[in-house]
Amino acid sequence: MTDRANSSLNPPAGAGAGPTRPSVTLSGSQLEQIRRLVAVGRASSVDEYVAAAVAERLERDRSLSELQDLFERKGHAPSAEHLAWAREKLGVDDKEGEADT
To answer: Where is composition skewed (Polar residues) in this entry (predicted)?
Structure first.
């Protein structure tokens, strides 16, 4: 499926063919929490935990962009009541739940 609202969220053909080693900065507290989760078996490694978190965020952002595209094609936006309901159901605050345009 193509993300018409934000094509930058679609990787180029062949992208993701293999793992890469980017540098990511985490606070000491975040890293310690992740290491504790790994130690108790909640994740197989720090890399796996971070990769899963990134994949979840990318899917959420892709979905939000797709939803925004749908509303733009319909010519109207959701009402404030709809947005409040969705934020409550998704457990996100106003700032966190909005896709970048």
So the answer is: 1-10
